Amino acid sequence: MEMKTALRGLGLAAALAVAGALPATQADAAERSFRMATAWSGGPLMEIGAQAFADNVARLSGGRLEVEVFPGGTLGPALKVSETVQQGVADMGHTWPGYDWGADPTAVLFGGYAGSFDTERMLHWLYRGGGVELWEEWRRDRFQLVGMPLFVRTAEAFLHSRKPVSTLEDLKGLKLRTAGAWLGISEQMGAAPVTMPGGEVYTALERGTIDATEWGTLYENISPGFHRVTRYVIIPGIHQPTAPFELVVNPGVWDELSDQDRDIIREAAFITTMNSWLTIGQEDAKALEFFQGEGNEIIELAPEVQYRAHELGQAWADEQAQDNEWFARVLQNQREFAELWKGANRYRNVQTRD
Predict the structure, then answer these.
(1) Phi, psi of 59 (to 5 degrees)
(2) What pLDDT was estimated at residue 6?
(3) Architecture per CATH, 2-105+122-152+247-281
(4) May I ask the CATH class of domain 159-240+284-341?
(5) Band (23; pLDDT cuts 50, 70, 90)
(6) 9 exposed, middle or buried (CB, 10 Å; 0-12, 13-18, 19+)?
(7) Which pairs with CB-CB distance under 8 Å and at least 24 residues apart come from 309-315?
(8) Can you tell me whether residue 19 is helix, strand or coil?
(9) Per the CB 3.0–4.6 Å rule, which of 41, 47, 272, 279 could disulfide with 53?
(10) Which residues are 11's β-sheet partners?
(11) Would you say residue 24 has pLDDT above 70?
């Protein structure tokens, strides 16, 4: 436990150095390969998410453990990675928990929604507030899977849009691609939402099948090229203030692993998650200038839209908690955490001039 705690307090280079000091018995342990299904065809979710995790597993295990990463749709439907892993077609998978909201809306409490706190608070809740333990217990109980965070976003861009969007009036009838709880919440705000895998979004925008899409953060949205077929970048991402992604593992595979190998997988997931947050945060800072240079217009949502989205997100959560014990349990835990942190802005925010 002391080794585990120490690793989670270190950076990537330091963690790998500690891993190199593991007992010599690791070198004699069994080799193992895993097939990982993903929901992604490429981009940062693959490069600094799934593939980075595979690389970290290999390094931390001294090459004994190998994760072969498959693009979305190769082993199973991109939006049904958890089912692909449940069925044993893949040993593990990289997905967003919110894709499973139809089976249990509790998924969006782990994956983020319009009522979530920001990523800094989410990371603290997960790793210091008991969130990771709740996550694993929930996945086991409701889906017969082992689950844990793997990759996390900063706040997303609200939309890449063919039409200007700023007010509640602008949202009325807007055909937008989204997923999770925002499907229902955005509809309450007047939009006409649909869902589809990420690989289909560009073509849908290009053909005008949809007017707009949310997908990832400003930086993550560069590689799909949405800016080439839309004119407007709408910020901030009120629908998704944070977005933790997930490693799911088949329980039969997990139970066969030694405690040491389970720890390696957990630490690789943690290191990858923290590194993704730092990388995306840094690259987001550069992305607005990129989009402006590409001829996109940046529009900030009116306060009325931001307030209304959060209000509806909280109301949606209250409604789900009424008849879902897991949802109620996780929501209460998150709100207790939020209460603890409610004064954080007083001692964290320092007034400066831009």
Answers:
(1) -65, -45
(2) 39
(3) 3-Layer(aba) Sandwich (3.40)
(4) alpha beta
(5) very low
(6) exposed
(7) 309/114, 309/185, 309/189, 309/238, 309/239, 310/114, 310/115, 310/238, 312/114, 312/185, 312/188, 312/189, 313/113, 313/114, 313/115, 313/116, 313/181, 313/185, 314/115
(8) helix
(9) 272
(10) none
(11) no
